[in-house]
Amino acid sequence: MRTEPPPSQWGFPGPGRFDPEDDLVAAGADLEPGTLLAAYRRGLFPMPSGRRGDPMLWFSPVRRGVLPLDGLLVSRSLRRSVRRFEIRVNTACADVIDACADPRRPAGWIDPSIRAAYLELHRLGWVHSVEAWRDERLAGGLYGVSIGGLFAGESMFHRETDASKVALVGLVRLLEDDPGEARLLDVQWRTPHLASLGVVEVARRAYLDRLPAALAAAVPAAFA
Q1: Domains of the chain by range and CATH?
Q2: Where do the TM regions start and end (predicted)?
Q3: What percent of the chain has pLDDT over 70?
């Protein structure tokens, strides 16, 4: 059951005030549940700067990474891997976030404040983990924010080959439970790894134009 938190005390700038060439669109505010949900509903997401004392940074990429639900590229080897794992939802969200936050990973950005904020959103029913299990061990997974038909992926990890990709395949299947809905799978930025799975770039304006319909769509049954 989702709980709508109190509204944020902060206001975010509208697209008319975004620098057309800069992914960074705001700084400051807090990570209260109402603030985070307000940001995602406007097409923004937070990332810390990595420097102690700096304000939180808020991004709306000029070129947004999106995975079309009918565009996921599943290789023959990945199809075989899918059969090796069991997909579970929300059985180990804290463990998934902690694995994604492992400081040994390059370019880590999930600090204690981010961890606490997203676990609180999980408690309120807005953050979900999709997990790949094998032999009763968490082998990989991902987590993200679900609002209506929007799933905003935050991070993914694997401990076994292909386990994070299998979790992504599982997520796409969960989002496809009602093909008539205007679902949107946002992955923030298109990396070479994500591009190999079918992620494409869309212009910021195009993403923001699609967002209202996605937010108004039904929540996938697995996340309701």
Answers
A1: 15-62 (3.30.70.3550), 65-223 (3.40.630.70)
A2: none
A3: 99
